[in-house]
Known about the structure:
Blueprint: H1 2-19, H2 25-43, H3 50-64, H4 69-84
Helix pairs in contact: 1-2, 1-4, 2-3, 3-4
Amino acid sequence: MALNKLHSELQKLREEVACLSKDDTESRDKLNRLINELERKLDSEKEDDDRSLMDSMKDALSHFETEHPRATAILNDIMVTLSNMGI
């Protein structure tokens, strides 16, 4: 169930990235890197260092919170889901 929610939130985040201004390459790149990192974590069966993933999430939250509130809300939902999964 949590994995389905996480995949759904990732899709929302991809849609939000698609809506960003073409000129906002920094935000676009940062969100795409984060999406890729989350997808690698979901696809991996290894126990990686979850701390770096959560640090990336927190960094993204602080970066986007004023300029991109929708992306921030989605990232927050993803963090809650990851936390509930024990990540």
